[in-house]
Structure formats: C-alpha cells, structure tokens
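Blinded run. Sample ID left blank on purpose so nobody reads anything into the name before looking at the predicted structure. Input follows.
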Amino acid sequence: MGRVVTDGSHGSLHVLLNPIYNMSLGVDTRLLSSIVFIQRIWDAMVDPFIGQFSDNFRSRWGRRLPLMTIAIIPLALLFGALWWFPRNASQNELFWYLLVSSLAFYASYALYSMPLGGLMLEATDDYHERTRLAGTALAFGFTIQIISQWVFPLTQLKFFPDTITGVRWVTGGLVVIFILCGFIPVMLCRERLYHRVAEKQPRTSIISGLAAIGGNRSALLVLIARFVSMFGYNIVGMLGLYMNTYYVFGGNVKAASWAYGFLGSSFHIAALVSSLFIYPKLEQRIGKRRTMQAAAALLMIGCLGKTVLYRPGEPWWQLIVLSINGMANAGFGLMSIAMLGDVADYDEYKSGMRREALFNSLLAWAEKAGNSLGSLLTGFLLVWIGFNAKLGAQSPHTLWLMKLFYVVTPAAGALIALVLIDRYPLSEERAYEIKAELNRRRAEAVKDSPGEP
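Blinded prediction complete.
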C-alpha cells in the first residue's frame, strides 16, 4: 500500500504535467523540461541523505515508521497543491509556482519513500522470496499507475466546466487516497532486524556509507545498469505522449487523451501481470542476472516494433509496443530491487552494517538521475526537431525525427545495461552462503547478550 502512495503520486504528476501545463496552459516545453530536470535532480540529491538519516535513526518504534508517519500528510497535500496555481498566471509565474511547489513535494516524498524502500529490502532474507515480495509491491504500484493513466481523461468529463476545475477535483480525490493508503504500512509493518542488528550498530556518515558502497562491485553494477536503462528510456520518455497526440492523432488532443488512457493502462497492466506471474517464475529458473538481461532484450524488441506499429490514424497497434515496454520495465525494476536485497546482505557480511535505506536511496538516485537527464533533453529535442504545440498537426520531417529518436535511444540504453549486468557476481548459491553466515553471527551475538530481545 505504500507503493500506491509513492508510485501513484509521482506517476500522476508525470501523467498530468505536460497535458495541463503545456497543452492546456501553453507553458514552453523547454521550461517544463527544465523543471522536470530540477525536480528529479533535487529528488535524487535528497534521497541519499534521507536514506542515511533513516539508517541512523533510532526510536522505540524503529528506524522507518516514525519518518513515514511524519511525511505522509505533507506529501499528499503538496501533491494536491501542484494543481492549485493562479488561473491567470503568466508563463513565468507558472514556472516558479510549479518549481517551488514540486521541490517541496519531493522533499516530503523522499521522507516517506526512502524508509519504505528500506523496510521492503529487509523484510525477508530468502533469495527467491525477495523477488516475489518485490513483484507484489511493484504490482500495487502498477495498479495505481493504471488508474493514473485516466487522471487527465477524467478532467475532460463534461460536467467539469473546464480542464483546470477538472484537474483540481480529480487530484483532490487522489490526495484522500494517498493519506489513507500511506498510513496502512505504518500501522501494519514492522522492522525485522531492528532490535537484533540495526539498533546496536554505530551511526555513520553518508560519506563513509557511500565509500563502502563504492567498493561493492555488485551494488555498482546494479546501480549503473539501472541508470543507463532509465536514461535511454526517458531521453524520449515524454515522446510517447507526443507520438500518440501528433503522429497518430494528427494533433487532436481530446481524442488522443482517451486513447492514451487505454494505451498507458496496457503498459501498466502488462507490468503488473509480469511482476506477479512471469518474472518470479523466470527468476527461479535462470537467476536474477539472466532475468534482468531478458528484460533488456525484451525492451529492444519493443523498440524495433515501434518502427512498424506506430501508424497515423491507427492508434491500437501501439498496444503491442506499450505492453512489451511495460513487461521490460517491470523486469528492470523488479530485478534491481531483488538484487539489492542480496547486495545489502553482502554489505552486512563484509562490514557488519545494515543500511537498506541507503541502498534503496541510491537505486532511486540512479533511476531519477537517468530520468531527469533524459527529461531535460526531451524538451530541447522537441524544439530542435521543430515541434510547436500551437501548430496542432506537425510537419512530416518533425514527425519522422520524433519517431527515429523514439526508437533508437531506449534500445541503446537497454543494450548497454544488458552488457553491464552480465558481470554481476552474486549467484543464488553465493547468496545462500552469505545468509547462512549472517544467521550464524546473529546467533552468536544472542548467546553473548542473553538479555537482549
């Protein structure tokens, strides 16, 4: 349920940003790309500090739950505030309103999501159960993202007098959902290793934590592969919206918005199904490294499919591409989380420290840094290829270049990630050896401190 909050708030922001601020209010795509870049860099910079703070935090309720309790209401309310801009604001005023409110939102977002991620990484020490747990958590995230694909179409319903009124009512409903769902893990989850391990370990600085992780080859390979795949995918991530609206629908925003709801839902439905039923079984057969490579290969196949399945006036062929992309991206996300659980055990094996939230924050950093750099380039890329929202239908040359970049860059990122992860060294056998040794050490520690809980 925590993933409903983190994936739902960020996903809805991503889905609404361009339709509201660019297509409805006319804010320049370069300004929006700059804001997204600053948002994601800010979010990525804050994450490691929040992750380290959570690892160092001590209380009778643990390291994670008190921070999540503090963060959830500000997170939800600030998400709602993103859409309460002054109605007659200029481009410059809208730029600053969106920038300041989104930076405040992402600060609260980090304070909730980093402890939540640490809680998930430490929930089990079983090699395969980590994959099943990650798949289930991601499935809840994908479910709310299916719903988020319909947020903008819902703002177009006839009983709303205009788009701005619609977006405020719809996002207001999401605020209530996020608050209710956000408190569920706070009430029902517990930290598995807090009293036995984490409570006793010394507090460390973020520099020493990063230095230790910098010497962890397994961690670095997972993080770099995730960054490269996200950068390649998101350098043209926003082009999916523009390809559908201007290449397939010829600039008809209202018609494209409803089709995009179905298309975006197909992406997340495929991701949800593969997270629950395909990747956990595949990982048991071929291991985590090969499963992530299979996801990379699948993304490249989806990119090739774009060359023939994006057709003007024929929107439903996109369902095939977006379903393949959803499965591929689910594989990247799921395997990254499952691998980091093993990596955190290896870190404890080498250093005696449990720092799951820092690992989770660095994975989030890799994803967000790739996302932000890609999003920054997208707005300038749209201007470079001659895109102009005021024209409606775009020129054939602009549409051809849009399609070219939409195909090539995600495939290149997936190929690099596939090669990098081939060097990942933590096999299932090695993971179970580390688990056995950690259990032996903890048992010895209990013998030495019989009065400890």
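Unblinding after everyone has recorded impressions. DSSP finds 15 helices and no strands in the chain.
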